[in-house]
Amino acid sequence: MWGMLIVLFIACWLLQILLSVLQMKHYQKTVARLSNRPSGYLGVGVEKKRLGIGTVMVIVTDTDGTIVDCEVMSGVTVFSRFRKCKRFIGADLFQLTLTSEEQKYLPSFAGARANIERQMNVATQ
């Protein structure tokens, strides 16, 4: 009985590791795909929660700060995948305000915007 429980626990643990590795590969492929642009800036914002829904947002802007691509991954499990944020595309990064239902993305959006601002400041110096 105990042997079966230990084997089941180890199998679940190994499955968790495998799925986490697959999710990391998905993240890396998404960032690589979005960063494959001739000009502009890429920002990644991450909101980690110990308990609850975490969020990763990847924003790509042109040199003027207009969002040309945006994807978000939100969820609790390793089955979460990136989705397009079509509403943000075409908006000015610094003039965009989030609606009440989009407030859940605020920490990750702010992190991505801060990364892009840093890149813009370095480029202008």
TrEMBL record:
It holds the Pfam family GutM. This is Glucitol operon activator protein. It comes from Brevibacillus fulvus.
